[in-house]
Amino acid sequence: MLVFKFGGASVKDAQGVINLGKVVGNYTGEQLLVVVSAMGKTTNALEKLTRAYVDGSDDMHAIFDEIKNYHYQILHELFGDHHPVFDEVANTFVEIDWMIEDEPHDDFDFIYDQIVSIGELVSTRIVSAWFNHQNLTSKWIDVRGYIHTDNTYREGIVDWDKTRASIQKDIPALLGNGIVVTQGFLGGTSENFTTTLGREGSDYTASIFAACLGAESVTTWKDVPGILNADPKLFPDTIKFDELSYQEAIEMTYYGASVIHPKTIKPLQNANIPLLVKPFTHPDAPGTVIKQNAINKFDKPVIIVKNNQVLLSVSATDYSFVSESHLSEIFAAFAKHNVKVNMMQTSALSFTACIDFSPERFERLLKSLKETFKVKYNSDLKLITLRHYTDSALQEIIGDETALMKQTSRNTAQVVVK
Ligand code: ASP
Ligand code: MG
């Protein structure tokens, strides 16, 4: 069997959904499980809605209406005025209407997952209905009953034993009856609350299903020809890799290459399942294959740019040296507030870390560090990582920007710039 994953860009409008039907239509002889993300920029819009709700801001209903209208427009273009999927979609939106009628009481991350998950619940309803409309028999399943996580909201940790058991119990039989369509990015807790697996987590969903079902391969269909050495929106002369090893792919995603979610590769590597990254506009093109014993060929360095970074400096209030026990306390705070360190350095008097800026987590982290330490920070920075760099490539990247922190090892160079 095959697992396909379609990201938001592939289903950003009616034309995208139609194209998705065509891509999938080429595989009618195969058992197929299709994982779909939220349409276009819906997840960002739902994040905005969550913030508007939590902040009690006036534009909350306007934001939500825009999200609804966007989906209804696509539905109209696909199905005309009447189709049972209209009710399915409306019923999904209504859950949010009920929720946002009340004042927000719960933890932000919890609210976030309950609201943001709507994007995938709706997109998969539409895609599944479209498949059936095209005589591609499909079955919509609610992933929250299959991917079981703990209650780390916005970063659900998968309970593999439970997940494997659920998937293996039901899915093989369903695959025999048509295309199984399900949501990327989501999981469910034992108390039946919704979790998300981290932004761009749909790749990980595909990988979980593939690993549990012993798939032949996973294909993630993208708006790029495959894995490129850099983001083509930022750099003009990119090259595509024909193949990459699991190891290299893991390194790339670790440093923030957004083409694949970081947690995707490991389950596939363990089960020796290749991951294909292919363009949904040219389904026959070879794309990039990530697999065992791949030939890594780096004619150009891999460039990974992470925006919205904060450089945080922590020092002892009495100006004493940064000791191991300070460091362990600092790291405990990072771990507790779920803040990942992208790059770090210690000097005699301070510890400096480059982290992703996420307002709620950052506030919590600051508060807890400030109980014991002096903290300074610089925000709105960029972290650039070069894999397989050359000194000249590094110099060219930095240009005349000020490097606030820089680190090089044999294969990897990293620099934080303004
Ligand atoms: N829709 C989610 C996001 O945009 C998950 C995904 O696209 O993989 O983060
Ligand atoms: Mg998405």
Give a verbal description of the structure:
With 418 residues, the protein is α/β, with parallel strands linked by helices. The radius of gyration is 22 Å and the shape is globular. It is 40% helix and 23% strand. It has two domains: 2-291, Carbamate kinase, CATH 3.40.1160.10; 302-417, 2-Layer Sandwich (VC0802-like). A hairpin with a 3-residue loop joins strand 15 (403-408) and strand 16 (412-417). The chain has helices at 14-25, 42-55, 60-79, 84-101, 108-116, 118-133, 160-175, 202-213, 246-254, 265-271, 324-336, 359-370, 391-398; strands at residues 2-6, 32-36, 138-141, 179-183, 186-188, 194-196, 217-222, 243-245, 275-279, 288-291, 302-316, 341-346, 351-356, 373-387, 403-408, 412-417. The N and C termini lie far apart (47 Å). The strands form three sheets. Strands 3-4-2-1-7-9-10-8 form an eight-stranded mixed beta sheet, sandwiched between helices. Strands 12-13-11-14-16-15 form a six-stranded antiparallel beta sheet. It has a two-stranded antiparallel sheet with strand order 5-6. Helix 2 (42-55) crosses helix 5 (108-116) and helix 3 (60-79) packs parallel to helix 6. The structure holds aspartic acid (ASP) and magnesium ion. Magnesium ion is lined by residues 7-8, 37-38, 43. Keywords: Amino-acid biosynthesis, ATP-binding, Kinase, Nucleotide-binding, Transferase. Its EC number is 2.7.2.4. It is an enzyme of class 2 (transferase). It catalyses: L-aspartate + ATP = 4-phospho-L-aspartate + ADP. Belongs to the aspartokinase family.
